[in-house]
Amino acid sequence: MGWFGSWLSSWFSFGLSYGLSLVVGLAVVLAAPLQVAAEFSLPPLPYAANGLEPSIDARTMTIHHDRHHAAYVANLNAQIPTFPSLASVDLTTLQGSISNYSPAVRNNGGGHYNHSLFWTVMAPGGQGGQPSEALGQAITAAFGSQEAMEQQFNQAAASRFGSGWAWLIVKPDGALAITSTPNQDNPLMDLPGVERGTPILALDVWEHAYYLNYQNRRPDYISAWWDVVNWKEVNSLYAAAPSTKSGL
Ligand SMILES: [Fe+2]
Hints:
Layout: H1 3-35, H2 58-77, H3 91-96, H4 103-120, H5 133-143, H6 146-159, E1 164-170, E2 176-182, E3 198-204, H7 211-214, H8 218-225, H9 231-240
Antiparallel strand pairs: 1-2, 1-3
Helix pairs in contact: 2-4, 5-6
The structure holds fe (ii) ion.
């Protein structure tokens, strides 16, 4: 075999081993999802990343969804080997029994639920509609007026020290209330000190939700956020809440 023959032979064996590696690698990649199926998955944003501008900029939305929310999902799934029951529990149901789990499940399970809700209660400006008649009446009954409700909500969001969330909830007696929680806790969690109820509106006041555009001006972020509230979704959540008459 001359130099050309040996050159050809070496390339042939290289190609064969490389090809085999590709086949084996592909098989591993295809088989892997069957073995480590993630029980929780990242929902896509229901609008374009720039859909909430100018209230929330596209870069913030992309980082918030693609990195922060994705990390909560990945870290929650990483807890499944430790807590196999996670593989069969619904995300909302999980919140109500969170005291049975580790801080990692509480933080990441809360983060996954909270952000999944947060994306849906926002919509591009002008597309969110208005509170329904039923929700409007409940708001008036609980707070006196829409404006008073928003002021109380703003206060809860602005005064949450450090990281956390502001919520409009339907209490077990069917009345509306505003509350806030630290970190990734939420009003569904069976934890001491939590004012419990069904969340129908949520606002993320972690710095990662606004810092790129608003820096330390959290009140400006809160004020601009009302322009992108998806009242149509809030109306649906109110109607579906277990303790509202319309949800029975
Ligand atoms: Fe967040």
